[in-house]
Design a protein that fits this description.
The chain has eight helices and 14 strands. The radius of gyration is 22 Å and the shape is globular. The longest helix is centred in the middle third of the chain and has 16 residues, at about 160-175. The chain is α/β, with parallel strands linked by helices. Helix 3 (about 110-115) crosses helix 4.
């Protein structure tokens, strides 16, 4: 399992410090979510990884072996930065064949289009593609050289819910194929469902990072919905508030199971359970 390790990545423009010596890792077979408010430094980090900006400092290691510079990451990474751009008057297949020819790759355009769910639109002009189709074509382009790692900056921007779900499923499929994926997004609940690790940036520094699994035991805001009004004096061994047909409390996943079981024993069965997103809760710690 290959791993990229970024150490002490720093970037500034004039007297303004954008990235303040951050460390993080990208591992094959895992999805790492890079999140944070606007201006946190996410896009700047992506530009450094793509070799578009020279950092003030920083080292990059591939399988514990130091690379000479960030530009060499291009030999191991595929990039989708913001919106994919193609020749609109050419078909999806022709666009990919053009890129394949420029890189001397042995990739097959139809195979790539099939991988991202666009084989039926292979000969359709890109100007007739929807935004979601263009994003999938962008992912096909990223896969031309079969890179070990994918660097994806806001791949869900402007997508309708159905297409967004398709892209999320595609990322999971690529992870299962062994790709190491770093993805930035503001869709915290969606990315939480598929991410293995996360990095929360704030003002150029890592506020919090780790595996999603390590935070599964954290308490989250939970709302349980009932068809009937719930008494405020129920004995469920947890602090809660009751309003109308809802109960609200702070509980971990395991604690929520205990509460629901106790409520069922008391004759109150929720028809819906809402949990706040772990990443959203961590994100909101910055906003307080």
């Amino acid at each position: 399992m290959r791993k990229l390790a970024i150490r002490n990545m720093a970037l500034s423009y004039g007297n303004h410090s954008i990235l303040k010596g951050i460390d993080f890792e990208i591992t094959q077979g895992k999805i790492t979510a890079l999140i944070g408010p606007n201006g946190a430094g996410k896009s700047s980090a992506f530009r450094v990884l793509a070799g578009l900006v020279q950092p003030d400092s920083g080292k990059v290691f591939l399988d514990q072996k130091e690379l000479a510079n960030f530009n060499l990451l291009k030999n191991h990474c595929g990039y989708l930065l913001e919106t994919a751009d193609f020749y609109p008057y050419l078909s999806g297949r022709k666009n990919l064949e053009l890129f394949i020819g420029l890189t001397n790759s042995k990739a097959n355009a139809i195979d790539l289009l099939e991988k991202v769910g666009l084989s039926q639109a292979a000969d359709k002009k890109v100007q007739q593609y929807s935004r979601g189709m263009k994003q999938r074509l962008g992912l096909a382009q990223v896969l031309i050289d079969n890179p070990s790692f994918l660097i994806l900056d806001e791949p869900f921007n402007g997508l309708d819910p159905e297409v967004k779900e398709q892209i999320l499923r595609l990322l999971v499929d690529l992870k299962k194929q062994g790709k190491g994926i770093l993805v930035s997004t503001h869709l915290l609940e969606d990315i939480e469902a598929i991410a293995d690790d996360f990095i929360l940036l704030n003002q150029g520094e890592i506020y919090l990072s780790g595996s999603m699994e390590s935070y599964r035991t954290d308490k989250q805001n939970v709302t349980l919905h009932f068809e009937e009004t719930v008494p405020k004096d129920l004995e469920i061994e947890f602090d809660f508030f009751s309003k109308d047909h809802k109960i609200g409390l702070s509980a971990s996943i395991e604690e929520t199971k205990i509460v629901v079981k106790k409520l069922q024993e008391l004759g109150y069965i929720p028809y819906k359970i809402e949990r706040s997103s772990i990443l959203y809760d961590k994100y909101m710690e910055i906003a307080k």
